[in-house]
Design a protein that fits this description.
16 helices, globular, six-stranded parallel sheet, 12 strands, alpha/beta
């Protein structure tokens, strides 16, 4: 039996840890022994342990993010020297963990795990590096080129979750593009919409438009809430839902709250709440916070919106496809591969609330078209994003490495 050590960079719920969980539910335990090492405590630890997977936490290892979703620039530039200073100690700590668990293969679940990659390379353990976030350009490109060389040099195989993510790397015969996938047993299109709406306190008459990802600049939350007023003029009974991490304004500590305000760390969250204030008061938008019942949320939804302003893969789009829901998404990166414009949904320019609103209105005002888009999205999800098929493709990458 081969032991696979999976490293995951965070403790919170999100697309990357859920994608890894779906992969591990398909793994052949007679052939592979999975161990998931997380760099932070949090809900994902309980999630993996509940699935019967050994999940220790390694607090001495940090990640180094230089992706479209997070990089140390702008207001976050102050983090760069700190993360740089932590790199070598993280390599040392990761080497200790690798020696402890003695894996036959290390599978990195993020673009950000360069320290762990260096550690596995020094321990002569083959690496599968899962590129789930596209690499950022940065200011001058030095970090980008360093990370691209690092990935090419250290990884025995590289799995990119989209063609766009692969295009951000150095061309290599070791790259495999395997899209994220969805479990159709969990995301069941036959879940009762009426029952799901009752649990969410939604009425059958409402047109429910949902955004998954919470309040985050890369997700385009501000664009979403800005589109609401225009949509309401055409569809008065519309209800917007923002599902995921809620606005994080201030802190329970006055000192930390003041620091966040002075550093503008919560400026985006304040802008979102400012733009949404009247709609919240009128009951037209709801911030649900983090939820663990995504299939029920999508069952209650008429239209899924993905208004991203950075070009990353969009798990909500493939989940919406599994639930036969139409989609409106930004015309960039991952969505360009996941949405057939005019067939499974509509693509709009990013950072354009007017265009977003018009696309939402066009679908909500034409139920027959919305239904046809949902069916086309379901057929596409079955073809391209099935968990069993894509998990087998991932395990085939392991076989390539062990065959050497």
């Amino acid at each position: 039996m081969r032991r696979i050590l999976y490293l995951h960079h965070g403790g919170g719920l999100g697309g990357a840890p859920l994608s890894l969980l779906y992969l591990l539910t398909q793994i052949d335990r007679a052939q592979y022994e999975p161990v998931v090492l997380t760099l932070k405590p949090g809900p994902v630890v309980d999630l993996y342990r509940a699935a019967g997977i050994e999940t220790p936490v390694a607090l001495g290892i940090t990640d180094f993010s230089h992706t479209e979703l997070e990089w140390y620039g702008g207001a976050e530039l102050w983090r760069l020297p700190i993360q740089t200073a932590r790199f070598l100690p993280s390599v040392i700590a990761a080497r200790r963990c690798i020696r402890q668990f003695k894996p036959d293969l290390v599978h990195l679940n993020s673009s950000t795990l360069s320290a762990a990659a260096r550690a596995a390379r020094r321990e002569n353990i083959p690496i599968v590096w899962h590129i789930r976030e596209p690499i950022a350009d940065g200011y001058f490109g030095f970090r980008r080129e360093w990370l691209k060389r690092h990935i090419e040099h250290d990884a025995a195989r590289i799995i990119a979750i989209s063609e766009y993510d692969a295009s951000r790397l150095r061309p290599s015969p070791n790259i495999r593009v395997i899209h994220n996938f969805v479990d159709f047993n969990t995301f069941d299109r036959d879940i009762s919409s009426g029952e799901a709406r009752r649990k969410l306190n939604l009425t059958p008459a409402q047109n429910v438009v949902t955004m998954l990802g919470g309040v985050a600049r890369p997700k385009g939350t501000l664009i979403f809430v800005k589109a609401l007023a225009r949509v309401r003029q055409a569809v008065p009974n519309v209800k917007f839902m923002v599902v995921g991490p809620p606005p994080a304004i201030g802190d329970s500590s006055r000192l930390k709250s003041l620091a966040k305000f002075l550093l503008r760390a919560d400026a985006y969250d304040r802008a979102v709440m400012g733009a949404a204030a009247k709609s919240i008061a009128g009951g037209y938008v709801r911030f649900t916070g983090i939820r663990s019942d995504m299939p029920q949320v999508l069952a209650a939804t008429d239209l899924l919106v993905f208004p991203s302003v950075v070009p990353h893969f969009a798990r909500p789009i493939i989940e919406a496809g599994a639930m036969a829901k139409p989609v409106v998404a930004s015309r960039l990166g991952g969505p360009l591969e996941l949405v057939q414009d005019g067939v499974t949904g509509l693509l709009v320019p990013p950072d354009d609330p007017v265009a977003l609103a018009e696309a939402i209105i066009a679908i909500l005002k034409d139920p027959a078209r919305a239904n046809a888009m949902g069916e086309a999205g379901y057929a596409q999800a079955r073809e391209k994003f099935d968990a069993v098929t894509n998990a087998r493709r991932t395990f085939a990458v392991y076989d390539e490495i062990f065959a050497r």
